[in-house]
Amino acid sequence: MSSSMSTTKVLVSDLVSTVNHVPTNFIRPLDDRPNLQQVQSSDVSIPLIDLQGCDIIQNIRYACQNYGFFQVVNHGVPVSVIEKMMKVSKEFFHLPESERLKNYSDDPFKTTRLSTSFNVKTEKFANWRDFLRLHCHPIEHYIHEWPTNPPSFREDVAEYCREMRGLALRLLEEISESLGLKREHIVEKALGKHGQHMSINYYPVCPEPELTYGLPGHADPNVITILLQDDVSGLQVLKDGNWVAVNPIPNTFTVNIGDQIQVISNDRYKSVVHRAVVNCNKERISIPTFYCPSSDAVVGPAPQLTDNDHPPLYRNFTYNEYYNNFWNRGLSEETCLDTFKN
């Protein structure tokens, strides 16, 4: 099928039924392909933390220092809320093309939008992903923009967003304590008025998954990401130079610290490069919640974590400055932290 066909469909989910090969604009150079046969399994590689267990702070410290990623069980989010969120997400991406496209925009400043790839205006290679991006804190500022189809979308997603905010705040308090800071330091001192948004990612079946990515390797620009996955593998984390598959465990969330935690911790904790791969058998849905500072919040190393032996490694900056740098650079580089180093 000619690659010109790919220009007639805006979204990958609508393109997929018209092609039996990956169109040329999705094909990565030879040295930038997933090498799927070299990926390790995460069964013993990513810490699993019981949030109703013992030694939570020590376990979080260990995970953040050594992995930048961990999974959480007994997190307090009702199974019914998780199931409704996943169900309504699948229903949205299975709506007719004309219905979904009512939400389409390639304007990154729109606070509710359906789009594809990562940044269609700047990137050299497209990614095998569609996504619905929603801003969700404060919910009352944004819920009127969200889709009304499926009919339960706003109600189900709002309930999930509230649960995610509660979990994010708890985890940030525990991360703060694990750094030796006051429990409320990150939540009260580093985030300004707070921001929260989410992405409902849809990765269609791909005819040639070895040639492309759902998302290439990158570190997250925010503070903390809480990921809900369906039962299809796709998330991979870079650990000691090797890609490790984070296989889904029912009713758990996968948590990773973002660039802002690396800055606040003055490099005690590192945000970790991760990616999403696709497959030729099953569609996949993943739903990351991104908790972040408000755009005007000033971020820098926590003063309590700097001294003569540990000078501040980063200058202070606004989150808006950081995020704009991240967005304009796209995923051509894995992180933009170096731009803000002292």
TrEMBL record:
Alphabetized GO MF terms: dioxygenase activity; L-ascorbic acid binding; metal ion binding
According to the entry, every stretch annotated as the Fe2OG dioxygenase domain falls at 194-293
Keywords, A to Z? Answer: Dioxygenase, Iron, Metal-binding, Oxidoreductase, Vitamin C
Q: Which cofactors must be present for this protein to function? A: L-ascorbate
Concerning InterPro entries, the annotation shows: DIOX_N, IPNS-like_FE2OG_OXY, IPNS-like_sf, Oxoglu/Fe-dep_dioxygenase_dom, Plant_2OG-oxidoreductases
Pfam families per record = 2OG-FeII_Oxy (PF03171), DIOX_N (PF14226)
Record GO biological process: defense response to oomycetes
Show the stretches that span the lipid bilayer: none
Going by the entry's taxonomy, the superkingdom of the source organism is recorded as: Eukaryota
- Reaction catalysis annotation: salicylate + NADH + O2 + H(+) = 2,3-dihydroxybenzoate + NAD(+) + H2O
Give the family this protein belongs to, as stated in its UniProt record. Answer: Belongs to the iron/ascorbate-dependent oxidoreductase family.
Q: What is this protein called?
A: Fe2OG dioxygenase domain-containing protein
> Which organism encodes this protein?
Clitoria ternatea (Butterfly pea)
